[in-house]
Specification:
about 700 residues; alpha+beta; Growth Hormone, Chain: A; 4 domains; 19 strands; elongated; binds the ligand CC(C)C[C@H](N)C(=O)N1CCC[C@H]1C(=O)O; protein transport; membrane; MFS_trans_sf; symport
Length: about 700
């Protein structure tokens, strides 16, 4: 009946180029929803840090918890959809929850609401924190809840013989995910950088959250507009409860019949046959088989997710100057969605057909295996890049060493003799770095300063000034204030972004300007000569002394690793999405999508744990370790995949239903037949049918 209903609905639905028109509304919905999700995520940590004034640790912990929650809630959404409301209604209701959450975030970022003294900072931080946490919870519920439903609902719109179209749909669906995320990760940081406010102008987080909120409303409206065109499969009772009860009964029954006198059954789920419908048992077997196959998959996501953390950190030690374009370390991440947008069409229209032409059967599980291997290669590339970077890093003192820097503030060179070392000639306005064991005693040297012990963070440049004049000098730029520097004294380090910086040097009412260009990750001590004359050009009276060289390994070297991880993602993730749909029984499509997304959540958790536990001193070695782990997991997966037999759930379900109908007829004509015999016979027949429908291996 259900199949006929679907056939009727699809027969009368509008078709464009062989695709149901309803698909258009679903992919546009996904585009807007992913814009909303990734756009909000792009500014979330900065909102925590600069608006809520949380420290780095709290901000990153809450951020990662939120992301992990977003991939856990799909289970909830899938259960609601498959057991209760159906996918269509679940998407509508949870999208409303999602949009409310986004609006709550936007409102929580309006500083004027609690800024009663109008000084530009919120007076009741509790209000903003509570509202934003409620908002984030609703968003996690909404985005995670609808995610498995939208993908599965899209798959439902295709008929039995539209396998090719359905595969293309999942590719286009993935393109929309990445198109939306790419646009929003470019746009929302720009919106955040605007200034807005009623009483005082502040960074506009409310706009950066408001636009994603608006896009979520658009996503909902677009989805509702398509309402009349969708095929809406109704849920067939509380399927999850039935599944749990059936599994529970099979385990109990198997335990009760553990003695050798009872004949073995083909599968442990067959022990539920006494009480449960054979169709349900077959459907549970299908789901369990796929879920078992998913066990090694989180490892892929563990590597994939590190491009947002470890790889971005790696980029901070690299040079992002691309000529006319200067790329910030975190902007490198946009290479992933950009590559997705190019690689998905190339794979679909060129690579896969080419492989097919060569006579190779590149099955979904083979694609996923190759995808994992490509991700491992990406990490080998990352290790090679890291080795290049390490060669350019300065030598910092170890824990048993100390570092001394000598700066000659005079205008002539001086000879310096340090205990246990040869005399050295130190030219004017130059620094000599000196590393020695901690127990060396130095006397009569410059006042103690805290020097850098690592490269400046986030690709910034660490800058300090030393005043060689007899008067105090105030130094500032648009981005940093070095304060008043006493004669023959130094300022603290300040972080300056790459590009041109103009420093204003001021003494009383007199000032002059000094400009210079910075690369990424350098450190300089600017020495102000005693000869500086205010009111004139002070360009020649300041000497830049390089403490740490700017990053010299170019960020373009990260492109191969991004290429491999993205090519891996296309083979692994796009295929996995479609595989999860095609191998799921009709009443558990969303559940299996949620199972797939659950592997992403576990991958995220592993990253969190690894970040805490990984104590490998060399970063390149850690990359190699992850690559090796993934290769090992990949071998296990390929063995598991080899034993997996593809099924056509629709066909199996149809055969089971036919069999049940026939048996009903039989029952009516032969009342009182020995039931046990019949169950046994049916069980054998159904197994044969199940086996016939599951012929293709990996
Ligand atoms: C991290 C990118 C912006 C998006 C990524 N390429 C992607 O499409 N996904 C990562 C997790 C699954 C999937 C998604 O659904 O967002």
């Amino acid at each position: 009946k259900i199949l006929n209903e679907k056939r009727d609905k699809l027969e009368f639905s509008k078709v464009v180029c062989g695709y149901p028109l309803s698909i258009f509304f679903i992919v546009v919905n996904e585009f807007c929803e992913r814009f909303s999700y990734y756009g909000m995520r792009a500014v979330l940590v900065l909102y925590f840090k600069y608006f809520l004034r949380w420290d780095d640790d709290l901000a990153t912990s809450i951020y990662h918890t939120f992301v992990a929650l977003c991939y856990l809630t799909p289970i909830l959404g899938a259960i609601v959809a498959d057991s209760w409301l159906g996918k269509f209604k679940t998407i509508i209701y949870l999208s409303i929850v999602y949009a409310v959450g986004q609006v709550a975030m936007a409102v929580s970022a309006i500083h004027d609401i609690t800024d009663s003294d109008r000084d530009g900072t919120p007076d009741s931080m509790t209000f903003h924190i509570v509202l934003s946490m409620v908002g984030l919870f609703l968003i996690a519920l909404g985005t995670g809840g609808i995610k498995p439903c939208v993908a599965a609902f899209g798959g439902d719109q295709f008929g039995e013989h539209q396998d090719r179209q359905r595969r293309t749909f999942f590719s286009v669906f993935y393109l929309c995910i990445n198109g939306g995320s790419l646009l929003s990760t470019i746009i929302t940081p720009v919106l955040r950088a605007q200034e807005c406010g009623i009483y005082s102008k502040q960074k506009c987080y409310s706009l950066a959250f408001g636009v994603p909120a608006a896009l979520m409303v658009v996503a909902l409206v677009v989805f509702i507009i398509g309402s009349g065109m969708y095929y809406k499969a109704e849920p067939q009772g509380n399927i999850m409860l039935d599944v749990c009860k059936c599994i529970g009964f099979a385990i109990k029954n198997r335990y009760r019949h553990r003695s050798k006198q009872y004949p073995k059954r083909q599968h442990w789920m067959d022990w539920a046959e006494e009480k449960y419908d054979k169709l349900l048992i077959a459907q549970i077997k299908m789901v369990l088989k796929v879920l078992f196959l998913y066990i090694p998959l989180p490892m892929f996501w563990t590597l994939f997710d590190q491009k947002g953390s470890r790889w971005t950190l790696q980029a901070t030690t690299m040079d992002g100057n691309f000529g006319a374009l200067v790329i910030q370390p975190d902007q490198m991440q946009t290479v992933n969605p950009i590559l997705i947008l190019t690689l998905v069409p190339i794979m679909d229209s060129l690579i896969y057909p080419l492989i097919k032409k060569c006579g190779l059967n590149f099955t979904p599980l083979k694609r996923m295996t190759v995808g994992m291997l490509l991700a491992a290669i990406a990490f080998v590339c990352a290790a090679l890049v890291q080795i290049q970077i390490d060669k350019t890093l300065p030598t910092f003192p170890s824990t048993s060493q100390s570092q001394l820097k000598l700066l000659n503030m005079g205008s002539n060179s001086v000879t310096v003799k340090l205990p246990g070392n040869d005399a050295l000639i130190l030219p004017a306005a130059q620094v000599y770095p000196f590393i020695n064991n901690c127990n060396t005693k130095f006397t009569n040297l410059l006042p103690e300063t805290n020097d850098l012990t690592s490269k400046p963070q986030e690709g910034n440049n660490a800058i300090r000034f030393v005043n060689g004049m007899k008067t105090a000098v105030n130094v500032s730029t648009a981005a940093a204030d070095f304060g008043l520097i006493e004669p023959f004294y130094y300022s603290n380090y300040s972080q300056i972004k790459n590009g041109k910086a103009t420093f204003t040097l001021r003494s009383g009412s007199q000032s002059c300007e000094y400009s210079t260009n910075f690369g990424f990750g350098s450190s300089y001590t600017f020495f102000i000569h005693s000869t500086l004359v205010f009111g004139s050009n002070c360009q020649d009276s300041v000497t830049a002394v390089e403490d740490i060289k700017p990053n010299s390994v170019h960020m373009a070297l990260q492109i191969p690793q991004y290429f491999f991880i993205t090519a891996g993602e296309v083979m692994f993730s796009v295929t996995g999405l479609e595989f999860s749909y095609s191998q799921a029984p009709s009443n558990m499509k969303a559940v299996l999508q949620a199972g797939w997304l659950f592997t992403v959540a576990i991958g995220n958790f592993i990253v969190l744990i690894v970040a805490e536990l990984a104590k490998i001193p060399k970063q390149w070695a850690e990359y190699v370790l992850f690559a090796s782990l993934l290769v090992a997991v990949c071998v296990i997966f390929s063995i598991m995949a080899y034993f997996y037999t593809y099924i056509d759930p629709t066909e199996i379900e149809a055969q089971f239903k036919k069999k049940i109908n026939e048996d009903d007829e039989d029952d009516k004509s032969k009342p009182g037949k020995a039931e046990v015999e019949m169950v046994k016979r049916d069980s054998i027949k159904c197994h044969d049918e199940y086996d016939k429908a599951t012929q293709t291996k990996m």
